[in-house]
Amino acid sequence: MRIGTVTEIKKHEYRVGLTPDGARAFTEAGHRVYAQAGAGLGSGFTDEEYAARGALILPSAAEVFEKSQMVIKVKEPLPEEYPYLREDLILYTYLHLAAGWELTEAMLRSGVRGVAFETITDRRGGLPCLRPMSEIAGRLSVQEGAKYLEKPFGGAGVLLGGVPGVERGRVAVIGCGAAGANACRVAVGMGAEVTALDVNPERLAYLDDLFGGRITTLYNSPGNLEKTLADADLVIGAVLVAGLAAPKVVRREHLGLLKPGAVLVDIAIDQGGCFETSRVTYHDDPVYIEGGAVHYCVGNMPGAVPRTSTLALANATLGFGLRIAELGLEEACRRDPCLAAGVNTYAGKCTCENVALSHKIAYTPLAEA
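RE: above sequence
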């Protein structure tokens, strides 16, 4: 198979879908690899490294898309890339289709076979290609939230770890999956008082065991949520339903409960956000103030640490990519239902039930498509 990777054009996105070592894995398996010139520079990989591992360097994304049967990216295509989509192309990347209709419509209209990292599952129902980015975003959320609690950025001027004789900052984490658990880990490490909320008692029990009672775990009832929001200096939203738009767990009216200068970090913003007042921001202008609260809603948080993020992502996605290249998408999906769960669009059909529910469009099971 002919495999391509291109430079990401999303604002302040520095990750790359395929590393030089990934290119080597494909070429050693007998496949041809094309890399757009400069595609890996943001993550610290030079064209020479790709070429040394068997990739052919092409000057433009248009040429890579034209020559490739499968293009491996990191982020969803932007409108400038829609003309490159076609029916005989496999697009292997994060798609987050539930967050917006425009991209979904472009994918369906083109007939492209869209394989979304975020809906590929494992045998236990986990999300192995989403997990590493969730881990990174969870850890970054506390780092960034602590920064924007500083007074010059509009925050309340609270140091999360406190100092002797002064109470520590309070962090609320809503959603206790991979992102939420990693947010708790960093917040505890910084010395904050941490409260984690979820509707899954098993996850709450897991975190209680993991942290040995160093955090408070609460069932996410309306009363518990309101009390926790009123006490919090930093609120991290990490609620995810795979393939669906994120539920709005913090409503506009909740802002009145918050302390002035509290910070909200919405990790779920690439799925539409789990705070009603969230809107997408970028690394060069990451925050805005609404209702007296500082909102941090960067849609590609792991892009701030591209070297770490790219390597972690490649560890998770390369194996599935090699399987697609070896067997073809159809046969690979017949053999592996976990990979099949990642196919969101196929020949003009929406093959992800949760995406179809989000947009109220027809769902076609992949086997029928």
